[in-house]
Amino acid sequence: MSEPHSGSTAVVAADSGDQEPSSPVPTGVPAADDANPAVHAAGNGFASGIAHSLSDRTSRLDEIRARARARDEAREQAREAHAYVRAGGIRRRRTPEELKNVVERGQALLHGTSLPGGPGTQREASAEAVIAWAVREFGPWLAVASSMQDTVLAHLVSRQLPWVDVLFGDTGYHFAETIGTRDAAELSLDVNIVDVRPELTVAEQDARYGARLHDRDPEKCCAMRKVAPMKQALRNYEAWATGLRRGEASTRRNAPLITWDERNQVVKINPLAGWTDEEVEEYAARNGLVVNPLHDDGYPSIGCAPCTQRVENGADKRSGRWAGLDKVECGLHA
Ligand code: SF4
Questions:
Q1: What is the mean pLDDT of residues 44-69?
Q2: Is any ligand 1 atom within 6 A of the Cβ of residue 171?
């Protein structure tokens, strides 16, 4: 018994007993591609095009994977080398007195004179020059701090000190966009991101101090989740570079390029102190850098989610931070 046929096939019945029975043939289609060389060739070309395209994609993926592996290896080697230096493998960490002398030398070299146009006037050094000095002076004993509002400072420093440690204060209260910016920075820049975390998780803090401490006592919350962990992390370094800029807030109006950070007992370097918002944006655009998407969504200053609000056009850029409270700084830069 023959198999039932389906679709648009038809059976051509045998018209005499001495003929072979006909095979089922699709209506309007040649019995086999072999019967039509053009169709056969087109079919082969199509198949080989797909094969080529798949093989191109596979080799591109292989290249991307190889590059990612090479980056991971380079990061790991640099991490070990930097850790070796900071463990005293080449020299010990300098004492506060020695580091204060370094600050004085740096200020004399890089700070401008205070009388614009006067005799002996010297312009303040550029961000690149300040970073070059810091890299010469500290090498792997230098860290960068980043809130992941943008990646400009991390990029600037990594160009002169590849795989520099970038300290990210991971408070547990960040916007998803900020964590995404952190991850994108790790993938796209030659940096080593170090997540600086508080002793207590948010759940542990809630259990010990009650929920929403940030609403009731933001000073205490910032002290535990930002200031203390960063102080602890900075014990591994002689200097930190921050993205502090004079134009950001009245509290930052006098930010120097180089200073002694008494609280953390390290040298503090603010290479972008004199940069405007436009200069930061222009640098990020020119170098194709990752910027926190919230920045273009009404958040000119980005901190923890519970303590950061959108800001009206033209309003003080930091007015969305701890809005309605008598608090303008978290304490890291006090
Ligand atoms: S910014 Fe707000 S949530 Fe973040 S540590 Fe400070 S008080 Fe806590």
A1: 86
A2: yes
